[in-house]
């Protein structure tokens, strides 16, 4: 009987992935896209974002197809927020936390930005499981994307250093902006992630911008994962963070907690996220993973993006 339930689960996954592939295939072919101001809010990943011209532009820039995947949304959200803040210009300085192998440092450097890409040191990353999961950039080679930028320009504008996000060194200061992508939920517990968001503001100048994405639990009135390798933030945590930062003179872009109502907004994916064969059962090959929301230990989870402008004069 249990194997029948598993077969039903796999059917749901297969139909969801197939729908995502079909929707992507039906998207219009868009040429000559340009960056545009859309008044981006702090918000959740949605199907309408995936289908927007602004996201398609950033996919074009990072040499990626438009896919119904929340990780694609995170890349585009961060880049759109930085663009709207005027950060993507020659001579600007940016600091990335937990960069892994993301394409953002390469694209920023192509726009003339001086970038410091950081990660936890290899020994501590291995203990936390980041290296095993492929979320760690041990050197500049892993954040260099040759289809985005040439090596000479990249080496001139991008540097790499190891940084513990729970103990940011005091010499990392004066940047125009900073960002992190799905990293602050891996710092041990909910409070440590929120403290990181606040502490990271010390790294940027007044008027500078911080952009972060993280895991978001859509079930705000239920218990969440508060500690461990991956924690899940809820609406109440984001609202408390906004109040905390506002009290210090910072400006958090208003939150839009609308989860969307498209087919891919309503599809909640379940493990495994990659094809694998559990003990005693041979599972069919599934299409490439496509989802905006997942079920993580019983919680409905998506991504949320946060945009902060640093206040003050010093």
Automatic annotation (TrEMBL):
Organism domain of life:
Bacteria
Identify the InterPro entries for this entry.
Answer: SAM-dependent_MTases_sf
The molecule here is called Methyltransferase type 11 domain-containing protein
């Amino acid at each position: 009987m249990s194997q029948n339930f598993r077969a039903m689960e796999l059917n749901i996954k297969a139909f969801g992935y197939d729908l995502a592939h079909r929707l992507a295939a039906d998207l219009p072919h868009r040429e000559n896209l340009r960056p545009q101001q859309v008044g981006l809010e702090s918000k959740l990943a949605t199907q309408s974002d995936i289908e927007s011209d602004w996201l398609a532009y950033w996919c074009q820039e990072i040499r990626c197809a438009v896919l119904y995947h929340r990780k694609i949304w995170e890349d585009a959200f961060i880049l759109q927020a930085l663009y709207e803040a005027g950060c993507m210009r020659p001579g600007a300085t940016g600091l990335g936390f937990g960069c892994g192998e993301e394409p953002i440092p390469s694209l920023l450097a192509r726009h003339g930005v001086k970038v410091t890409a950081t990660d936890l040191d290899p020994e501590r990353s291995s203990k936390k499981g980041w290296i095993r999961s492929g979320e760690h950039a041990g050197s500049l080679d892993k954040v260099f994307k040759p289809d985005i930028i040439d090596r000479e320009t990249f080496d001139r504008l991008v540097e790499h250093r190891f940084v513990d996000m729970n103990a940011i060194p005091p010499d990392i200061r004066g940047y125009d902006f900073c960002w992190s992508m799905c990293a602050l939920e891996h710092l041990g517990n909910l409070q440590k992630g929120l403290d990181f968001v606040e502490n990271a503001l010390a790294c940027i100048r007044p008027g500078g911008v911080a952009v972060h994405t993280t895991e978001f639990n859509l079930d705000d009135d239920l218990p969440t994962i508060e500690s461990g390798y991956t924690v899940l933030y809820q609406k109440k945590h984001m609202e408390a963070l906004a109040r905390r930062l506002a009290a210090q003179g910072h400006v958090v872009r208003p939150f839009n907690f609308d989860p969307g109502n498209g087919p891919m907004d309503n599809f909640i994916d379940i493990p495994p996220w990659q094809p694998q064969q559990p003990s005693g059962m041979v599972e069919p090959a599934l299409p490439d993973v496509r989802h905006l929301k997942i079920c993580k230990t019983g919680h409905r989870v998506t991504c949320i993006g946060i945009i902060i402008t640093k206040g003050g004069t010093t």
